[in-house]
Amino acid sequence: MKKESVGCANDGGLSGLGEMEVARMARPTEDAASESWLAAARRMGLEPERLAHVRRVLDREVERGLIPGASLLIGRRGERIHYATGCSVATEREKLPATRETLYDCASLTKVVVTLPLILMLVDCGELSLQDPAARYIPELGDRDAITIKHLLTHTAGFPPFVDLHTPGFSREEIIAHIGRLPLEYEPGTAYVYSDLGYILLGEVIARLYGCPLDEAARRHLFAPLGMKDSGFCPDPALRPRIAATEYIPAEGAHRWGRVHDDNALALGGVSGHAGLFATADDLGRYAEMWLNEGWANGLSVLSPAVLRLATVSHTAHLRPANRGLCWVLKGDRWDASGDLMSANAYGHTGFTGTSLWIDPATGVYVVLLTNRVHFGRDRSVAGLRAAVHNIVAASVSKA
Predict the structure, then answer these.
(1) Are residues 387 and 244 in the same domain?
(2) Do both 152 and 32 map to the same domain?
């Protein structure tokens, strides 16, 4: 699919110029965007000639029809470079460009951007321990005291990889009760099986300990302190023109657009610990910067350095080849999308819809890559694209 055929343009806006300057550059010319890109890259200690390859790679995949569009954010030294290309919506009826302001369905990035930090905050303030039995907070688990909070965070609790929770028409309470009754596939802590079910339960733990729904806890304790003004669950229908549409759903006769793509999250009202977050690349960049800044953001200590260190070391070394921190994917794990050149300390996560966030503390670089790859069908893989983007960014680091 040619970009020209769908009427979607590139947006070369760069936050490295400063927020006010970017706001005045409503739609920079290609020359101005290129110059801005070069200047910002140099300030960030990145080789601009190498870094420019990332735009070519993204444009190429849009041209090929792998993805309708993308929103990329690269951050280092407190500065950011943004690049958007292609479409956020590319249907026969509507064609909308991907821009810096586009909201993406983050899918499983919800686990690492919402559920993980809210659980870690509870650890920091002594409200729970990773070794606590999950049944202490989720009585629906019955006498399964062997399942700990840590098991839920590391996908080692014994749950199957997937269970259809939406077809039966369960209520939220019935979904939690149903998960609590599921037979375990292995003894907790003896295997690693990626499963959304543990994060659905963690979302419930958060709601019960914070005394409010998960989305409200995220807004109060995470999004507001970090300045993530565009992040949230169940976006207002008025925001639809800014939202990247996901997959065409035959039963609905349309693409999912402004409603969560994940069916189990949809059954939970769009608010769940495993999926449901909508966010811009800029907001995810603010979150990544908090991790690189030892938990500090906007003059506030959001998370302690101690709990951040705990989250980014391997907790599955005895279950190789799995290599997981607390939620984070580490180097060498099956789902590692960091590419070849990021350091051994890099960590990140992906989302089924085509999203990813990767952080390399060794170089101080983070990369947010948001695509709606399922827009053209869920058979499109962006694994190669993610690796290529991360390799280009890592290769461009020229100064410590």
Answers:
(1) no
(2) no
Residue 34 belongs to what domain range?
A: 1-102+375-400
What is the Cα–Cα distance from 387 to 238, expressed in whole angstroms? 35
Secondary element (H or E) of residue 391: helix 383-396
Question: What is the phi-psi region of residue 34: left when phi exceeds 0, alpha when psi lies from -120 to 50, beta otherwise?
Answer: alpha
Q: Which two tokens stand for residue 141?
A: 């688990």
Encoded tokens for 121: 């905050």
Q: Spell out the per-residue pLDDT of the chain, length 400, in tens.
A: 333 333 464 544 323 222 222 322 233 345 556 778 888 999 999 999 999 999 999 999 999 999 999 999 999 999 999 999 999 999 999 999 999 999 999 999 999 999 999 999 999 999 999 999 999 999 999 999 999 999 999 999 999 999 999 999 999 999 999 999 999 999 999 999 999 999 999 999 999 999 999 999 999 999 999 999 999 999 999 999 999 999 999 999 999 999 999 999 999 999 999 999 999 999 999 999 999 999 999 999 999 999 999 999 999 999 989 999 999 999 999 999 999 999 999 999 999 999 999 999 999 999 999 999 999 999 999 999 999 999 999 999 987 6
Whether 281 and 82 have beta carbons less than 8 Å apart is answered as yes
285 in the same domain as 275:
yes
| 351 domain-assigned | no
User: Beta partners for 351?
Assistant: 355
∠ CA 332-337-340, rounded to 5°:
70
Phi and psi for 10 in degrees, rounded to 5? -85, 145
Task: Specify whether the backbone of 17 is left (phi greater than 0), alpha (psi in -120 to 50) or beta.
Answer: alpha
In a domain, 200, yes or no: yes
Query: Is 352 within the bounds of a domain?
Result: no
- What CATH number did the domain enclosing 242 receive? 3.40.710.10
For residue 253, the SS3 value is coil
The strand pairing partners of 103, in sequence order, are 243
Q: Which helix (H) or strand (E) holds 79?
A: strand 79-90
What's the DSSP call for residue 398? -
Same domain (yes/no): 296, 244: yes
Provide the 8-state DSSP code for 324: B
Cα radius of gyration rounded to whole Å, the chain: 20
